[in-house]
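Good morning,

Both structures are done.
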Amino acid sequence: MGVHSVQIQAESGAVEHSMDPSRIFVYFGYVMAAIFEVLGILVLFFLPANLHVSDKFRVMFGIILLLYGFYRFFSLRIKQRQIENEERQFR
């Protein structure tokens, strides 16, 4: 009953919830930025000692991952604000 009632509501137009396909890429971008930041933190502070990686390399690689995560986040956010501003201008 639950599945059919949802389909009937969607077919009748009572519930209209469409997802813009470009929004999926935006969410994916934010998730990837978060993954890079978490990996950077893991490499900097929680890398197992049995991997035998020098401290200089560990710190350098962790900082690069963190910076890349921040870069992805802020560049995506700036791009989204530009798109939102353009949409407001054309309304």
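Second structure follows.
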Amino acid sequence: MTKGVAAARPDFPSVDLSIRTKTIMAVPKSKGFYVVVSLVISVLLIGVLLSRIQAAELGRTLVHIYLPALLAYMGISLVAAWLRAWRYKWLLYPRGISWKDMFLVTFIRY
């Protein structure tokens, strides 16, 4: 017996919605391959970024940063990361994950 829309409406054509997997290209499973691909993509994106900005303008911007606001942002970000780590540590209490590991995971995640 058919299920779904075809069962509710007999005049509706039945469609096979099963997912078929095809191997288009074999991708190496080694960690080194992914590291190299990540590095190549990172270098390309940094190159594109640096080609679109002027070094003098970047220097002027960095020199004129309002340091109290930057330090406040950094402090708030660290407190927020610590609160997220505390929340996940509390939720994952039975697992016994260390504070250092939990903080690093949540800090990298967000």
